[in-house]
Structures are given as structure tokens and as C-alpha cells.
């Protein structure tokens, strides 16, 4: 295995394992892993599948696996840790990354790339966006459960990697409006917690109006705050983002017809927040709903629905709980209507 790989995946879980696994073989990929994943991948190798029938198995010995940040040296580093681990990843990378390294944050939330940029002066740090779902179905088995193209902030340093990602079946769309893209993705990620609290696969949850009405409340609040602050939201769906809450509130049969793309999800796919709760990990709720609450605070406003969702997920982190859509909707509606 090469002494200095072409590409480092920093944080090998669902997204890192899947992206790195698809790139493996086309370029020299090194995976920075934690102990548990090291054992899993050494023993079982890596299995990659997608909803369109793609399948690949990489044997353990063929994987370049490292546990220490000291080995995270490559011209291209993909950061794929959860948001709560970004400060540590940034500190660790700051010690080892060469000055000409390109770092792409393929994380959700609005602030991970910013945080990495501040900690990695001189290096090029770009925000990326993964539109599709990846679930670790079994240890070391990463499944892409929905579709979409990766997006990355447009930059000259990105150009040389575009053919590589395209050859791996992961085409990247370079974007000049990445902050607006991240806000659009955040609107979808406001469903992560609702999906986790529902205990249902994403497709079943989104097929039911009760859950969609909960999401519509959270999205409506976020959209109002973006508008108030004059922050644009990219149009990633056929309908403009401001119409999303209305779309979500349609009756099930109509929604299934009008928004069939939103339901084109593998029947087993679940949000990454659901995965966190299952694994007993701290979720990214602060980086997702917390971003909405933070922006509201900047203009002296509240975001009571998103704030209440944070509290409910915190409770679920401490003690597993399954909600019904009726109860959650009641809970969020009463948060929305409570006087300040
Ligand atoms: N899963 C999905 O469908 C999608 C996820 N995303 C976003 O991608 C990002 C990654 O999510 P996801 O892949 O689901 O998360 P996972 O928790 O599955 O993977 C993150 C991995 O990084 C490891 N890790 C954390 N810190 C370090 C470190 N310092 N050194 C080495 N390894 C480390 C974690 O280990 P450990 O578990 O031991 O803590 C974990 O295995 C998140 O921001 C998420 O919101 C975006 C789109 C889709
Ligand atoms: C793709 C999506 C919106 C849902 O799986 C996601 O980003 C996540 O689970 O974190």
C-alpha cells in the first residue's frame, strides 16, 4: 500500500465508508477509522450497495486502514465525521496536513466547512453536500438508499478530481452558491430527527401526512428565518423551497403523485440521526435544528418548533422513545403557539 495515499477519508462511517469504498481501486484511498470500525473492516471487509443494484465487496486486507490522525496526509481529504466531532478532526488535521492539501467537508449542517477553514489556515477547505442516504445495514456494509448528485463549492483545486469522482459513479456538481445549497439541504435534514422519533423507515414516515405536517412546521420556521435574514435557499427540487411546507401538507395520495421523487427511497433507509440514536451516540441535532435556533437568535426571534425538537431528541438520546405522529404534531403545534 502506498506510503502517501491520493485520498484520505477522515471518519469512516456511513458516508465516509461509502464514498471511499466507491473511489477505492480508482485511486489510493486511506481510511481513518476508530478502533471498532478497524476491527470490523479488517475482519469483514467492506460491502457497498445501492438502490439501483450496484454491489462491490472489498476484502479487509485490500483496505488501507489507519487509526491515527498522524497518517491523514494526502492531497485530498474528505471529512466525514459527524458535526460534533469536527472540532477534534480539525485540530488533528491541523497538525499533519500539508499546505497544498484540499479538504472537502461532506457533512450536513451549515458550519462544518467554516470551522475546518478556520482551523486549517493556508489549506483549501470546500463545503460539500451529500444528497443521498447512506445506511450501515450491517457492520461494514454501506448502502446508498436514495439518489442525487454530490455538490461541492466551485474552486479551481476541485477540477482535477471531477473525472475521478465521475468514474466512481459519484459525479460532483460544482456550485457557486454552496451556502444556499447547504440551507436547502438543511431543510431536508430537519426531517432527520422526526424520522428518528418516528421509529419508521424514511419512506414510510414521509408517506404519512401526520409526520410530514411535523416536518412542515420545522421547515416553515426555518424558511421564515432565512427570509427574514435575506439568506437565499437553493432550488434543489422541481418546486421552489418556499413551497415545500405546502407540498408536505397535501393528503397522502396527492403527495405520492406530486412528490414521487421524494418517496423514491429504499424501503429500509433511515436518517443518520436514527442511526445515531440506535448506536447510542450523541446526535447532530445542535448542528441541524440548532442552526435554525441560532439564526433566529441573531435577529432576536425564537424558533420554538426547532427548539422543542432539540429537547425531544436530547430526551431520546438519554432514553429510547417512539412517538406517534399525532402526539408529536400536538407537541410541536403547542410549542409554536406558546407565547414568548
Ligand atoms: N448517513 C447519511 O445518510 C448522510 C449523512 N450525512 C452527513 O455526513 C456526515 C457523516 O455522517 P455519517 O457517515 O452518517 O456518520 P457516521 O457516524 O456513520 O460516521 C462517522 C464516523 O467517523 C468516526 N469518527 C469520528 N471522529 C473521528 C476521528 N477523530 N477519527 C477517526 N474517526 C472518527 C466515527 O466513529 P465513532 O462511530 O466511533 O464515533 C464514525 O465511524 C454527517 O455530517 C451527516 O449528517 C450527509 C448525507 C447523508
Ligand atoms: C439524505 C438525508 C437527508 C436523509 O437520509 C440525510 O442527509 C441524513 O440522513 O443525514
UniProtKB/TrEMBL annotation:
Residues 8-155 form the Ketopantoate reductase N-terminal domain. The keyword Oxidoreductase applies. Pfam families: ApbA, ApbA_C. InterPro entries: 6-PGluconate_DH-like_C_sf, 6PGD_dom2, ApbA, Ketopantoate_reductase, KPA_reductase, KPR_N, NAD(P)-bd_dom_sf. GO terms for biological process: pantothenate biosynthetic process. This is 2-dehydropantoate 2-reductase. One of its GO terms (cellular component) is cytoplasm. Gene3D superfamilies: N-(1-d-carboxylethyl)-l-norvaline Dehydrogenase, domain 2 (1.10.1040.10), NAD(P)-binding Rossmann-like Domain (3.40.50.720). It comes from Dyella marensis. It catalyses: (R)-pantoate + NADP(+) = 2-dehydropantoate + NADPH + H(+). The lineage of its organism: Bacteria, Pseudomonadati, Pseudomonadota, Gammaproteobacteria, Lysobacterales. Keywords: NADP, Oxidoreductase, Pantothenate biosynthesis. Transmembrane segments: none annotated.
Amino acid at each position: 500500500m502506498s506510503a502517501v495515499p491520493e485520498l484520505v477519508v477522515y471518519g469512516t462511517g456511513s458516508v465516509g465508508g461509502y464514498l471511499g469504498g466507491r473511489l477505492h481501486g480508482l485511486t489510493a484511498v486511506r481510511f481513518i477509522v476508530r478502533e471498532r470500525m478497524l476491527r470490523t473492516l479488517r475482519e469483514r471487509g467492506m460491502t457497498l450497495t445501492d438502490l439501483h443494484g450496484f454491489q462491490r465487496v472489498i476484502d479487509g486486507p485490500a483496505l488501507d486502514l489507519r487509526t491515527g490522525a498522524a497518517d491523514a496526509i494526502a492531497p485530498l481529504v474528505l471529512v466525514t465525521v459527524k458535526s460534533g466531532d469536527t472540532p477534534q478532526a480539525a485540530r488533528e488535521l491541523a497538525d499533519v496536513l500539508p499546505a497544498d492539501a484540499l479538504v472537502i467537508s461532506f457533512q450536513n449542517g451549515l458550519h462544518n466547512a467554516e470551522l475546518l477553514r478556520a482551523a486549517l489556515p493556508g489549506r483549501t477547505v470546500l463545503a460539500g453536500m451529500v444528497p443521498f442516504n447512506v445506511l450501515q445495514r450491517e457492520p461494514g456494509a454501506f448502502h446508498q438508499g436514495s439518489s442525487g448528485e454530490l455538490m461541492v463549492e466551485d474552486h479551481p483545486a476541485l477540477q482535477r478530481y471531477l473525472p475521478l469522482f465521475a468514474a466512481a459513479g459519484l459525479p460532483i456538481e460544482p456550485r457557486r452558491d454552496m451556502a444556499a445549497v447547504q440551507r436547502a439541504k438543511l431543510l431536508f435534514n430537519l426531517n432527520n430527527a422526526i424520522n428518528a422519533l418516528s421509529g419508521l423507515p424514511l419512506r414510510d414516515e414521509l408517506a404519512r401526512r401526520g409526520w410530514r405536517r411535523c416536518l412542515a412546521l420545522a421547515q416553515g420556521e426555518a424558511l421564515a428565518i432565512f427570509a427574514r435574514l435575506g439568506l437565499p435557499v437553493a432550488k434543489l427540487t422541481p418546486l421552489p423551497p418556499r413551497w415545500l411546507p405546502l407540498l408536505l401538507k397535501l393528503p397522502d395520495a396527492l403527495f405520492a403523485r406530486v412528490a414521487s421523487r421524494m418517496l423514491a427511497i429504499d424501503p429500509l433507509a433511515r436518517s443518520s440521526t436514527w442511526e445515531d440514536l440506535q448506536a447510542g451516540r450523541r446526535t447532530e441535532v445542535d448542528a441541524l435544528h440548532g442552526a435554525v435556533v441560532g439564526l433566529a437568535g441573531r435577529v432576536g426571534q425564537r424558533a420554538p418548533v426547532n427548539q422543542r425538537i432539540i429537547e425531544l431528541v436530547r430526551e431520546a438520546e438519554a432514553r429510547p422513545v417512539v412517538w406517534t405522529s399525532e402526539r408529536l404534531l400536538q407537541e410541536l403545534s403547542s410549542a409554536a403557539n406558546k407565547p414568548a
